[in-house]
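Service request form, structural biology core

Requester: graduate student, group of Dr. S.
Request type: structure prediction, single chain
Budget code: on file
Notes: please return the result as structure tokens.

Sequence provided:
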Amino acid sequence: MEDAPIVVKDVNGNILADGDTVVLIKDLKVKGTSVTLKKGTTVKKIKLTEDDQEIDCRVNGTSIVLRTEFVKKG
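Core staff response, request fulfilled:
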């Protein structure tokens, strides 16, 4: 029996795919650092993960995982 493909959606319900560009909808503090990502920051070339609530990405040269509830498709 095959697993159903994971569908990842942004805060507005738009389907996200590898390589998409997203925009943060609120300021986010990055755990373990003093960095705060500002609302409106554009994140390019996202990568989907095994979890439908998270995406991998790079912001200012740092690899981080973002929750999909804080991004919208850009």
